[in-house]
UniProtKB/TrEMBL annotation:
CDD domains per the UniProt record, alphabetical: MAM
PROSITE patterns the record matches: MAM_1, MAM_2
InterPro entries xref list: ConA-like_dom_sf, MAM_dom, MAM_domain-containing
Pfam families from the UniProt entry: MAM (PF00629)
GO cellular component terms, A-Z: membrane
Amino acid composition bias (Low complexity), ranges on this chain: 66-85
Domain of life: Eukaryota
Protein name, as recorded: MAM domain-containing protein
Positions of the UniProt region annotated as Disordered: 61-85
Higher taxonomy: Eukaryota, Metazoa, Cnidaria, Anthozoa, Hexacorallia
All residue ranges annotated as the MAM domain in the record: 1-35, 39-198
């Protein structure tokens, strides 16, 4: 509402004295409630609430089960070691150096408290590029780089945690950046987002 308003709780007594009603811990803050979006996703069924946005790379982030089509890059299963589970990845064949693709979260409500974003990443390949974790402040339209991982990290899944604090509503963005060759497939799995610092 753009007008001045009041919020009131109306308590109505029941039939007899066994009707006490209690309230506690009322909070009031700007923005939608904190449970508006979930960032958690294991990518086994779909992209959950994440959106794949093609940047300059030939392919956007997409789900995959088993290994990626090229040898010498990409995982051979998802982060649980399962060849039936899925992950999301950026395919880098038929592309050029420094080309990008974006995996974008739903909007997260502002909060004075921190959140912990955790995820697994797989960055195997001789010509591996970079994975950047960015938050975009939806009010100030400002982008902040929170984490960057660059180069060949071996043929294993790694766990990563990033603490996020924002007083404005925001989105989390994973930016994949292709390296100098096709051995640059970047994969992500098991994103979790919870209250508190990491
Ligand atoms: Ca998975
Ligand atoms: Ca490939």
């Amino acid at each position: 509402s753009e007008h001045v308003f009041e919020v009131s709780f109306e308590a109505i007594r029941g039939r007899n004295y066994k009707s006490d009603i209690a309230l506690d811990d009322i909070k009031f803050q700007d923005g939608p409630c904190d449970n508006s979006a979930s960032l958690d996703c294991d990518f086994d069924v779909d992209l959950c609430e994440w959106k794949s946005v093609r940047g300059t790379n030939r392919y956007p982030w997409r789900r995959r089960t088993g290994s990626t089509p090229s040898r010498g890059t990409g995982p051979s299963g998802d982060s649980t070691g399962s060849t039936s589970g899925s992950y999301v990845y950026m395919e880098t064949s038929y592309s050029r150096p420094r080309r990008t693709a974006y995996l974008v979260s739903p909007e997260v409500a502002p909060s004075s408290r921190s959140h912990c974003l955790s995820f697994f990443y797989h960055m195997y390949g001789k010509t591996m590029g970079s994975l950047n974790v960015i938050i975009v402040d939806k009010i100030k339209k400002r982008y902040s780089l929170l984490s960057t991982i660059t180069g060949n990290q071996g043929n294993v899944w790694h766990y990563k945690e990033v603490t996020i604090t924002s007083l404005n509503k925001y989105q989390v963005i994973f930016q994949g950046v292709r390296g100098n060759g096709y051995r640059s497939d970047i994969a992500i799995d098991d994103i979790e987002f919870r209250k508190g610092t990491c």
